[in-house]
Amino acid sequence: MPGTVPTVSLNDGRAIPQLGFGVYQVEPEQTAEAVATALEVGYRHVDTAQMYGNEAGVGEAVRASGLAREDVWVTSKLSNAAHAPDDARRAFDETLAALDLGYVDLFLVHWPLTAVDGLDIVATWKVLEELHADGRARSVGVSNFQVPHLRRLAQECDVVPAVNQVEVHPYLANEEVRAYGRDHGIVTEAWSPIAQGAVLTDPAVLAVARELDRTPAQVVLRWHVQRGDVVFPKSVTAERVRENFALFDFELDGSQMEQLTSLDKGEEGRTGPHPDTFDYVPG
């Protein structure tokens, strides 16, 4: 039911719903319907990005929902093609126009792109500081940043990222990045929370699911919630959208949490690209 999702406090004084709805790889023509379903179920947090190509559908669904704008948290992310400061400013204006919601609750640098010559994460981040100062991005953060990237921002910039959205799941616990965030007031958001489905057939996950009479996905998502991370599973199937929302009427005990945490494979468990080497810039 709506209103059951806890919030996580950010370092800028705002509070983000801990469970959101992700629209990565949702086709633009399907996005409005998928987000509308999620909002009907009770989600109040939607995560999109410029490179997903579906911001307009997110905005359409939020506007049509009948919900007050301040009751729906909307995140988007800067395109890898727009890291140069003037490009970043133009791209953000395009996001505001596509969403047509007045402001963005959270805007992220999508990838650090330190493997690309000529790009400077500090210069890009300073643009997000501007957007935060003028209120068009109520909170600002980063995505896929490793500890050295975060340390550089800490040394050379004024605003500490509110969040760092990184790959996290039982096969990649990503503890070094999470620990840095915890120590510096940066909330971790977990993308690929079920390792693109890979963890759902793991015997340990299946055993806990049987013990609790829950689905494997619910068990893994609950593991994230109890670790304190923000999570936003994606599905265009209405039943799965409802299922993924039903995380707050059960708990994993200490032993069950440890069973999932012990599945960590370190870098071998990573399903996406490594941030230090990822250099994709759309042409």
Describe the structure.
Belongs to the aldo/keto reductase family. Pfam families: Aldo_ket_red. Residues 25-264 form the NADP-dependent oxidoreductase domain. The structure is a single chain. With 283 residues, this protein is α/β, with parallel strands linked by helices. The model has no long low-confidence stretch (mean pLDDT 97). The N and C termini lie far apart (43 Å). The protein has 10 helices and 10 strands. The chain has a domain at 8-194 and 229-234: NADP-dependent oxidoreductase domain (TIM Barrel). Helix 2 (55-64) links the parallel strand 4 and strand 5 (73-78).
Using brief descriptors, characterize the structure shown.
10 strands; alpha/beta; 283 residues; 8-stranded parallel sheet; TIM Barrel; two-stranded antiparallel sheet; 10 helices; globular
